[in-house]
User: Fold these one by one.
Assistant:
Number 1:
Amino acid sequence: MKLTKIAVPLITFLPSIAYIPILIEILKGIHFGGLNIILSLITSALNPSLNPIVLKSAWNGLQITVATALLSWTISMFTGLVLGILSSDIFWKGYNKYSFIGKLLKIVLAIPRSIHEVIWGILFIQILGLNIWVAILAIVIPYSALTARVVSEQLDNIDIKPLIALRLTGAKSITSLTAILCPKLIPILSTYGGYRLECSIRSATLLGVFGLGGIGTELYLTLQSLEFREMWSCLWMIFGVMISLESLLNWMRYSSNKEINLKRYYTGIIYTFLLTILISLTWLYFREVDLFTPFNITSIYLPTISEIKQAYLELPLLNLIFSTILITFLASGIAIGTPPLILIYFPGKLSRKIQSIFWIFLRLIPPPLTAIVILFFTSPNISVAALALGITNMGVMGRLLTDSLYNKSKGIYIAMRNTGSNEKSATLYGILSPKTNTYLAYASYRTDVLLRETAIIGAVGGVGLGWQLQESLSSFDWAQVIVITSVFALITISGEFLCDISRKYWLRTTTNNSLTLST
Amino acid sequence: MKNIPDSCKKCGGPIKWVKSSEYIDCQYCGKRTYLDTEDLAKLKNQIYNTKVLLTSLYLKAKGSSSRFIKSTKFKRNKKLLFITPIASISILSIFFTYKLNNIDLISKKERIINKNEETLFIGAIPDQNPEQLNRLYKVLASELNEQLNVMVKYKPVINYPAAVTAFKTGNLDIVWFGGLTGVQARLQNNGGIVLAQRDIDAEFRSVFIANKKSSINKLNNINDLKSLKGKRFTFGSESSTSGRLMPQYFMNKAGLEITDFKGGTVGFSGSHDATLALVQSGSYDAGALNEQVWESNLKRGRINPSKVYVIWRTPTYYDYHWLAQPDLDKTFGEGFTKKLTTVFLKLNQSSTRQKQILKLFGASKFITSSHENYNEIERIARKIGKIK
């Protein structure tokens, strides 16, 4: 008897099992008391406020947000690239003596990655005060670490034989490294870079709540006071920016696909980096943001060891960790499993276009809003938080999926269609299946992000480490904050370790994918 | 041919076509009908023409630019490619460092308008909608500007801990704080002067509300809060005085802990308005919020009395107030804090602008207050753990 093996594309559907417990929980508490609020939310989407006061301040805020996002994106891509190369194993192949530096760097980078931008923001305000650089730093630090991870892992997956060959012919290690690494960085930069820019716009919006300026102030105020019409004015504005950004990136990718000249490509990249820095700085300057206020560094109160110990004993850590992991698992199940499911159920070119707009739409809506909307027709529990987080991140995963399909040749799909298989199975085996590995790799990074984002959603059910972190921050209990952030870092590191193992397993078992499956 | 209509679009009467004409007027209603849908064709033609024009322009631009890139002139000057950005960056960095060292340049413009060089930064923990807020602080800033003769700038800070921190780091000079955040800010900053509060803040209350379906009865006294045991309950924001701290204090007083509710915990809706909407929808059985928000929503007709009602009003306590940095006199001149206080206290209904400010604050006047009023809140916050 043959061993049963799960078909590769089905692995991508597997996470959507998370829907079962969530739907059970949500259906249990379902009620229709909030129907009129949901209705008013929908009608105000079509009828946003056109009050000139609101529009003007939102427009001003949007410009600051976009400029901040551009600036922090550029810096984080650059530092992320450098850190990523430095922390990859392949870089240290030439200098075996010092290879521990790379490994150490990898572990150290897990700490900035495990803390959410908002938390970084609050910490930096403590030190630097209200300053636009707080927002920029708060985005740059976790994003650089995240980019560094993606870059280093993609680099470590490449074949090192050419490198060895080059080294044996007598090339210097730095020369051979440049020759090997540069071409491999292009796809990472073009796909991942564009995606990070959009993320940084969302983060910059979120950081607007600190009075650093930006559309986030308006957006979250309207959300708090449930002024849906004014909220939609802000949301549609951000939507416009995101749509134009996406089409711009697609256009750039399309035009750069034709001829890749390494030298010109890298000159182009250096240019784009410098230009964006200049443009965003001048933009901010002309929007009357105080770029040049000197920092007045305030010392922060550091808790003593005994206080930390006390905090550690006070917090119900086991319980908190359990619920946090549960939320992360359920949310990532939804986020990862849904896009492929929808792709298969609604195949076709037009529907894929509609899907990508739908994903933008989901990404646009901030998780607290999703949570409140879900709360309006069900009773509060852990699955509300999970579903809200899952829905926003579903948008991100959907984008990554459609993105990776863009770059793919459709040979298998066309062949299958011509031999007479129906559209659904052709999409499954011809389009989705070859991309499963990449998709799952990005999915594992996303799980990381989801863990961080529990910090901003936990408040809904009053559960999880995220909520406890907000509570401790608002009580200015630094000992507790230190304990919780280190627990976050610990979960991130161990989660990454598990993801590593599982990804290696999948990559090994799925080398010959689609063809063996269809027989 | 499909394009020939045989009846009038307006009245439906039959049309007889004369061979040579391009259009014909209906003999019944006079509506002119075109042989081809001419307007459409015209439009199509126009669109096509523009498209051709744009494409040709694009191709021309592309051709000339690629010719330029390929030309020897460009190749000779390839070094320029690197020199230009580096040069422009260095020029800009010189410019920026110059700016950094001469920050006065920026405020020069302001100095001409105002003899006083310092800017007063005001902040607030807002719980109003942005339209109202933008209006409120614009009006307030111009009022303060006129009366005190200093530049006034408003910085919105939505996040409670961030507002406290901004006060601590000295980024905000005067802040509109809630009871709890005001105490937190004073403790973090090692000082702060309570300027004034609204007339309603001296006797502030929270209301406990319940959904009709939850079958929670009106409470006669504080001990009846126990009947909320096992229900789904939500507070507002974690740092809110009226939406969390005081309600929790009264619950504890009645012998009710936050772990006594359904699911072993309470919810934090994030704002007073959200608490109200969530209880009204039935997602939560009960909740606690600011009395002022409840009243104003009642006036605006956002509350459906058949779905949600007040079960209990808490005893009064001190809430919102203006808190100022202790060293304002040093930066703005002797007696500035006093002047600032009088501006607030003298706000009245006589001037339209002042009337507007009072209306937006939801008060009829501002009254004096002192930090001793908040000792009770500090004690409660320490007990609950919001102040260490």
Note: DSSP finds 23 helices and no strands in chain A.
Number 2:
Amino acid sequence: MKLKLYHILFPFLLIVILSVTSYIPKKTELKIDLITKKTAYTATQTIELKFTSNQTEKIYLYCNNSYSSTILTPEIKNDSISFTVPNHFTKKTGLLKWSLTVSSKNVLNGEIIITPSNSKTHVEAYFGPRSILAGGKDLSMLVVVPSDSYDNPVKEGTKVFINHQFLSTIKTDIIPTENLIAWKNIFSYKPSGRILVNALCNNSSSKELTTIVYPNNPVNFKIEAQRDHDFADGNQVSYFITSTIKDQYNNIISDGTLVEFNIKNKQNILLKTYSTTINGVAKAKMLHPDHEETWKVNAVVPGMAESNTVQLKYKQVLKDFDIEFTNKNRTINVGILTSFMDQPVADGFIVKLNLYKNDSLIETKIKTSYEGMTAFKLSKDFYESGVYNLIIESGGITKEFLNTKLDE
Amino acid sequence: MSKLLTKNIYRSLLIISFLVLNGLILYGLSNVWTFLNTGADRASILNTPLQSVEAYLPKTVWTSIENPGRPIEKQTLSKLQKDYLNAWYVKNIAYNSNNLYGIKDYYTDSARVNLYKTINFNKKNNIKIEATTLAHQPKLEFYSADGQLVVFTDENVEEYQRLYKDNLITYEDTHKATYKVMMLLEDGFWRIRHMVKQPPTPKENIQKITPFATVKNKTIIVNKQPFTIKGINYYPQETPWDMFGKKFDTTIIDNDFKLINSSGLNTIRIFIQYEDFGKANVKEDKLKKVRKTLDLAQKHNLKVIVTLFDFYGDYSVQDWTLNHRHAEKIVTTFKDHEAILAWDIKNEPDLDFNTRGKENVLSWLKYMIKEIRKFDNNHLVTIGWYSTKAAVNLTESVDIVSYHYYLKNFENDFDKLQKEIPNKPLVLQEFGVSSYKGLWNPFGNSEKDQAHYHKKMQAIFKEKNIAYMSWTLYDFDKIPTSVVGSLPWRKNKQKHFGFIDKKGKKKASYLYISSQ
């Protein structure tokens, strides 16, 4: 009897168990909806995305903005889930993309646009080049990057006031921002000087920035020569002085501009001297020649400007001089060398001795005068006895002594 | 007598120990001498600049460099592009490791704060990002007169991102967006000052398509005719796994193709090695050799399946842009070549599932296919799966599903696969049996067994109209270690899969190379 009861109950139990177990694994279909409909925010406004969901397991929100991406975990209340976007995301303008993922699958996607806040504007300005040339062709460019207090570029089309001052002029241009920036070319004026600029946006100002307007390239100029006398005494100095060198807009060229003076002598040999300008004037010096000479002088600022040519004549100072042979012709005394007023020439006047033997030059000896005198000594250790030709030059005068016999 | 012997033994021992001692001293001295003479390369004294390694090469095309500021110099533009891409690269690396390294170089003081905040947040929440960008189309908006500031719009940047939360993939996708970017030249680096993300710029994309092959239902169609692949995997006998190397010889290939065609086959499969071809900078001479091969195939009326990325195995997201440039170069070079039937993205990628991660491999393949289709829509795309089980992956991305089969239950597994993939053509891309029976495998198959196997397979192919490509035409003399490792029983087995033996004699199996 007992056994029979079991036999009847068993199939029933089996049916009950099976029906219960078949119920459990049945999956509920995922149902998620977005509650938050707002898609436009200004920077730092709190962004909270709310969803209704019949599932709360393994739900995350992917967030991506201009600089970064991250994953947010939800706050769950009954059947609603919400995500609070962290403020380093809400602060940055532009597109904020989000995706709701459930068990690593993207279920819902959305986009939010964050616009710049109306808080205090910070004006960043870049100005360059910082030195330009006068004349109105050269320019410095001012680029203004206004941003809100969270370092977001302001809205496109925000007005930027660009001011610049030069001498007595102050001008303002109103430029709307485009592609994150507002910019203006500030051209130089004809005078040289300094241009100051600043930019204003939403009543905030940038720093004062400056560019220096340098004089333009020099134009041709004049030179003149100054000297104390016109004698070729090898002692005094001649000066070459430029006129005030200016650019085409009448600005005196920058101090320190190098001027090169070229002097051509009678033999077409080029002598050079240099000077830099102060207040547009360059002054160069050159020692007088020691013999009769004609100089043609001109000056250039290399590659830019040149001057007229000035011609200078130098008169011979030495008319004649005495030569005395002593010590078996081995000591030669030269002098007195006299200058234009019969005074002895200045110390250091050059005397040259050319020594020939059998028509070939053996040696050239150079000595300088002291109190108008000098002497050559031909030692027997160097110059053996014999017949020599001696030629002595000084101050443009040449004296020859042929077949001079040097003895022991 | 014995005294003398002992004396001699002592004497010789003494002499030997003296020699050994001297030897040791000499050895020691010579080692010291060698040590003192090794060290840094002498060229390093010259301090020549380091060659920078190309690590990040997304497709970047300047759509316009016209701007109201000042004309940009070529040199500046290339430096700007390099620094801009580096900015993306260091950002990707930083988000991957949550480490700030390198960011200072490419973001200005105020901009880098934005990255630092997220990195700290992600570090705290155990979030890791693998990211790369696939395409950039910058348009220059402004270049300042002093050459210190640029603004450009990078249109429709294609970004791929995979985010891990607690080491589990939580998000993976791509999206397009346009960025307004302002950069400043600081300390010789172009650095990002502002970056504003915007919705993508709508653009029409016109691509001329002249497909050489199409797929309709389950059939491949070439020249408006249904085309059933009857093919073979091809390497020249002398140069297996090095087809386009120094020994490349068109006469050999010409003869082989003639033979293949005459044996009733219509398709071959060839392989392009990633490193051998120069990675991201594909070597021109290699491409010339490929072109010659394709021209010969065309001449002998053979279609070619070109397998890319042979011997490549990294798949990491950081490597993607380099792989994409490799594929771009090859695919664009041959996009108008009629001989190619399909690009086979990778040989047996499912074998890397365990070592490289299935997700890594699958997303690599998926985006590689997308990239290849960007440059070439004339040819079909397939993946050479090793197993029929893996072949069900990415069926929506490929045109042809290819699988290899070296097991013993073909009919059964094929039926199963056909049921799982009812809407794409299936190609048995590799099959075969080695006729190696010898020292390393005394119970292996004989040439007769091999012939029998192919006969049986051909019967199945005929009955079920199955597309096939056998492995392979020749027995090989030498197998590179990189193919099956250095174990002799593996190497020797791999040497004997051919229909023609080492001496050039057709093996018994040759009769069944096709159903002809």
Note: DSSP finds 13 helices and 16 strands in chain B.
